[in-house]
Design goal:
The chain is an alpha+beta fold. Strands 1, 2, 3, 4 and 5 form a 5-stranded antiparallel β-sheet that branches.
């Protein structure tokens, strides 16, 4: 079976999470939506920083992994059910409010 590989991109940190393997995009989106709506997760707290990307596929019969450019599937802000959470303003290194 061919599985799809998805990774959450952390835009602020400039990196991707380890990939997750799903049978299809629907499964990936459901999991990402759950994370984006869990008040205890960083993805929920800082939704503007995260997005789910399709990064490749995996064939479980041959062991082959296929990749390419990351394709954005959804932003965390798009799948939030209640909109962005209110957060306190934070200071950044330059001393300006964000």
């Amino acid at each position: 079976m061919i599985y799809q590989l998805y990774s959450v991109q952390d835009i602020r940190a400039g990196c991707y999470f380890q990939p997750y393997m799903f049978r299809n995009e629907g499964e990936a989106l459901r999991t990402f939506e759950e994370l984006a709506n869990n008040p205890g997760s960083m993805i929920c707290k800082y939704a503007e920083d995260y997005r789910m990307c399709l990064v490749g596929s995996f064939d479980d019969e041959t062991g082959e992994v296929f990749g390419g450019d990351a394709l954005v599937v959804a932003a965390a802000e798009q799948v939030r059910k209640d909109g962005p959470l209110e957060k306190p303003r934070m200071r950044v290194a330059a001393g300006k409010d964000q």
